[in-house]
Amino acid sequence: MADEDRVLRHYVLNDEAGRLWATPRGELTRRRTWDIFRRFLPESGRVADVGGGPGTHAAHLAGLGHEVVLVDPVPKHIEQASALAARSQSGGFSCRLGDARGLPLPDAGFDAVLLMGPLYHLAGAADRQLALREALRVLRPGGRLLAEVIGRYAWVIDATTRGLLGDQQVWDTFELNLRTGLSNTPDRPDEVFWAYFHRAEEVGPEVELAGFVHERLLAVEGFAGPLGNLEELLREPEALLRVLRLTESEPSMLGVSAHLMAVASKPITDADDDR
Questions:
Q1: What is the DSSP pairing of strand 139-151 with strand 197-198?
Q2: Strand pairing class (94-97; 46-50)
């Protein structure tokens, strides 16, 4: 089963539209992601939201004044995102069905590109390079890339907090995750979540191999994701966001974060300066 088939199957069976709103962990991920956007995206400009799903991030950025084009390979997501854009009161965005490895977008047409899913749903390194090189192609020189990955220990931590350590199958997936980075074996089509889990030290070199200048790697949820009192802490989200900023780049903290965010830019060449 190809990566794209696994992705389609996963999102047919799961509600991505509600993931970032329905639980404390989802709220933490959303708030931290938007906090990173606020600090590392340009204040205005054209943004390509690649793998943008049902439009949560696109709607947020359009509401802030960005011109956003969402690209996603899942027809269900394009329908949901288009409906969200149509009813938006603060700013709409456009949606296109497409694959991160071959974007239906022009060269150098965007000030920023978001990859909030392709780098973990594309389990093969060659496919991830295709997605990164496509992001590089559509960015203007000096444009900013924000690319999210899942951390290598995300399932180990999540399964532990959910009390699943009595299940031998869970231990089998731990062994597979830590040894290969894969979420499950390719011969198990009934496993609907297919992803690659990155080690923190892999991310920068992978981004740079595609031609980017890698600037920093940030823990998205950081140490707060597994906390038992997360719901209580989110009653004062600004205080929680502030404390997470203190440790977001600390190498020893990256391994406990469910998601990591690479911040990178497209180099400006002498030819670009002469234009």
A1: parallel
A2: unpaired
